[in-house]
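Blackboard transcription, Thursday session:
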Amino acid sequence: MKCLIIDDDVLMVHILEELLSEVDFVELAGTANNAKEAISFLHNHDVDLIFLDIEMPEINGIEFLQIFARNSVPVIIVSSHKEYAFDAFEYNVIDYLLKPIDRNRLLKALGRARQNGNNHTITRESSENFYIKVNSSYQSVFFDKILYVESLGDYISVVLEDRKITVHSTLKKIEQKLPERDFLRVHNSFIVRLDKIEKYEDNFITIRKALIPVSRSHKMLLNQKLNIL
Amino acid sequence: MELFNLSRLELYSPGNKAFLIRSIELLRDELIQFDENIRREWPQRNLKGIRQVIHKIKPSVELFQFPEEYWEALDTIYGLDENFTDYQSFEVIIEKINIFTSKILDELNTYLKLNQ
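(Written on the board underneath:)
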């Protein structure tokens, strides 16, 4: 698992580097002393996990998460502030460690990241989106902003977090564009993004108040894909 | 009196002297920067800046178990209200922080001299 540490506190970076060097499934891909440096690093390198400080000059950790929200790289926050936890978990944050780091807590967080990573191959920003032709223009659609896709006869509606795009196409066509790990067809007329499912009850899924039917033939695969306790 | 304690740091990499020494060097650099920042921000009455400076040093204060008095002094300044104006009444605490910082720096330098 390739990691990037983003922190302007060099002592804490040094400690984290040492702790990570002892974990066999972790490889330190790089360190960055600020968010700008990190963004530039991430344009050229693939990483599987980011350790992120919150209090940093210019762009702080929360702002970094906002900028980088479309990327699906899991993040472990390392901060001496507890109060940012609520904001941080709005993003792809899998754990929140307090400074100074506790070794056992770190190992636990890495275990969580590893489990998370088994279902993901993290890719660069450029492969996190695709384009939909709407009239004469091409609109960028980030995979992680899609809630679900609905078939409407000869048209499909791509329902995003902030808007809906309806175009002349088929579910089959869009299904080929979507990453298999994140999306699943749950009905002849619906493809959903798995991590957007808020509730799954009987034969229906709830995503942002929308009730989406799950057909019997797709139910078994859905049950397998969902991380059910 | 020892003003810092390495027991928690040692737990990160038991028996690794190089790691220990490098950590102390970095702590020393961090404290020098902290000292400079406090001495710059306080006369400018920049409470926000002072808070940031204190916030940055807090994990090290905890990790190296600096004296309780130092921790309390930092906490007092960190906790000052946004609208606080009475800087003079807290000069004594800032002075205490500055003295402690210098003493800790002396001890760190001595440690490094003896162990490098």
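Lecturer's comment: The interface with chain B takes residues 9-12, 14-15, 18-19, 22, 55, 80-81, 99-100, 103 of chain A (CB under 8 Å).
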